[in-house]
């Protein structure tokens, strides 16, 4: 076999081995050949794209939904044909071809992987030879998008309220929820103030839950997956105890991926769910949107922010009708509306 090895590698620029908008990636393509070899071209490709795909079963029918979104595709010729026969000759041994690639400095989503959708940023090498199958090598790099500090409402305080009348004349219970802001950095403490008025004959227990929501969009459909990240509870508020103020604090886990709000076919979002646990009754619940920011951001967090638009939250993001393609196993009418909720899937190792 003439081509013994073809591989591509790059140099890290930080201890997390991540890259962001406008960063330059320096690396090399390594080619080893067992003897003098003719090649047509050696091509470097830097590429970023997103894809979602899932299937739904309705009796004997299966419908596949999928969609793509492309961000950039940059190509560089490291070897070009220079002889009249359209080839270039390289000698026996190991050859190193350096490359430098600048990631486009514009808004793009961070790397993401799940069983339904993924956002991939990768580097590829392609070796073309006459009358032979193209040899390929690739490697992925982790892209973390710069924080979008212009997200409406990011640093604006949040307030929601909920009131519930209990059955059988058991009285009323209400709560007001206050959060300092919507955007948080990894490792930052999130403080929630809960004002409870328990004018009922039952005790209530305040609880909160931070969870993630992944939404995938294709062909006018949506698939949803949720996963609880952490839970916390406070002391019981006794029956007929009147007004009481409680403060609950959680630390944003440092291993969480940042929110993805700038992709039309895939969203990664977070919410803080605050509720009062009441025996033998449905729990009054309030949900606040939370945006997890990447580690690096240049704008001061206390800078004034515009208010969020009406209906801000999960459904305010995303285009449910992006350009997409699909296939159906049999002729059939469009299946009924679907929304699935499941635990976070394992991260796949291949793409």
Automatic annotation (TrEMBL):
Q: Which GO terms describe its biological process?
A: nervous system development; protein transport
Q: Which GO terms describe its cellular component?
A: cytoplasm; plasma membrane
Please give the InterPro entries that the UniProt record associates with this protein.
Arrestin-like_C, Arrestin-like_N, Arrestin_C-like, Arrestin_domain-protein, Ig_E-set
- SMART domains, A to Z: Arrestin_C (SM01017)
> Which residue windows are transmembrane per the record?
none
Pfam families, per the entry: Arrestin_C (PF02752), Arrestin_N (PF00339)
The chain positions of domain Arrestin C-terminal-like read 169-297
State the family it belongs to.
Answer: Belongs to the arrestin family.
Q: Which PANTHER family match?
A: ARRESTIN DOMAIN CONTAINING 3-LIKE-RELATED (PTHR11188:SF135), ARRESTIN DOMAIN CONTAINING PROTEIN (PTHR11188)
Q: What is this protein called?
A: Arrestin domain-containing protein 3-like
């Amino acid at each position: 076999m003439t081509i013994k090895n073809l591989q591509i590698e790059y140099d890290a620029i930080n201890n997390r081995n991540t890259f962001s908008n406008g960063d330059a990636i320096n690396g090399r393509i390594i080619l080893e050949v067992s003897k003098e070899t003719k090649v047509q071209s050696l091509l470097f490709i830097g590429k970023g794209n997103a894809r979602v795909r899932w299937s739904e079963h309705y009796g004997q029918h299966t419908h596949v939904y999928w969609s793509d979104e492309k961000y950039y595709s940059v190509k560089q010729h490291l070897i070009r044909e220079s002889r009249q026969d359209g080839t270039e000759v390289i000698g026996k041994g190991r050859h190193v071809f350096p490359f430098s690639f600048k990631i486009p400095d514009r808004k793009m989503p961070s790397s993401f992987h799940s069983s339904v959708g993924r956002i991939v940023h990768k580097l590829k090498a392609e070796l073309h030879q006459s009358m032979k199958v193209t040899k390929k090598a690739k490697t992925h790099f982790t892209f973390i998008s710069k924080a979008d500090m212009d997200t409406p409402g990011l640093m604006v305080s949040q307030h929601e309220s909920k009131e519930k009348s209990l059955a059988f004349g058991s009285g009323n219970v209400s709560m007001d929820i206050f959060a300092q802001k919507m955007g948080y950095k990894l490792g930052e403490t999130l403080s929630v103030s809960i004002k409870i008025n328990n004018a009922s004959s039952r005790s209530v227990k305040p609880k909160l839950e931070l969870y993630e929501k992944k939404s995938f969009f294709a062909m006018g459909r949506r698939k949803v997956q949720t996963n609880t990240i952490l839970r916390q509870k406070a002391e019981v508020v006794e029956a007929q105890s009147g007004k009481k103020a409680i403060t609950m604090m959680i630390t944003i886990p440092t291993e969480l991926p940042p929110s993805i709000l700038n992709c039309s076919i895939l969203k990664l979002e977070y919410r803080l769910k605050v509720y009062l646990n009441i025996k033998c009754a449905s729990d009054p619940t309030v949900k606040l949107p939370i945006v997890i920011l990447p580690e690096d951001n240049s704008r001061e967090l206390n800078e004034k922010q515009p208010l969020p638009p009406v209906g801000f939250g999960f459904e305010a993001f995303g285009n449910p009708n992006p350009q997409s393609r699909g296939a159906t196993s049999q002729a059939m009418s469009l299946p009924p509306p679907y929304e699935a909720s499941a635990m976070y899937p394992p991260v796949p190792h291949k793409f």
